[in-house]
Amino acid sequence: MKRLIIGLIFLMFTSALWAETKIIEVNGMVCAFCAQGIEASLKGLPATEDVYINLDKHIVAVDLKGIDSITNARLKELIVDAGYDVISINLSDHPVEHIRLMYEPS
């Protein structure tokens, strides 16, 4: 039983290390409707853990689950297909929740 618990803790810890957050700079998002469409597309992916969109900063932040990642090309394709321009896609050192708090402090 101890081995099972230790194994589960190890699995949870290591999968968190493999998770990644990408910040996508997007042109063309001007309203909440724009953000909702992109958010729905990204949240519908099995690899997506969380999504945050900031219209003022023109960014989309996406937390991707552990080993279930998605390529930058696929992220770009989804956003371009929704009618927007992708300027850049970068890895972040911070998860979406931290990014959300940076732009929307309580």
How does the SSE layout of this entry go?
Blueprint: H1 2-18, E1 20-27, H2 32-43, E2 48-54, E3 59-64, H3 72-81, E4 85-92, H4 96-103
Antiparallel strand pairs: 1-3, 1-4, 2-3
Task: Summarize the structure in words.
By secondary structure, the protein is α+β, with helices and mostly antiparallel strands. It has a single domain, classed as Alpha-Beta Plaits (2-Layer Sandwich), CATH 3.30.70. Helix content is 44%, strand content 27%. The chain has 4 helices and 4 strands. It has helices at 2-18, 32-43, 72-81, 96-103; strands spanning 20-27, 48-54, 59-64, 85-92. It has a 4-stranded antiparallel sheet, sandwiched between helices. A hairpin with a 4-residue loop joins strand 2 and strand 3 (59-64). The longest helix is centred in the first third of the chain and has 17 residues, at 2-18. The N and C termini lie far apart (43 Å). The model is unreliable at 10-16 (pLDDT under 50).
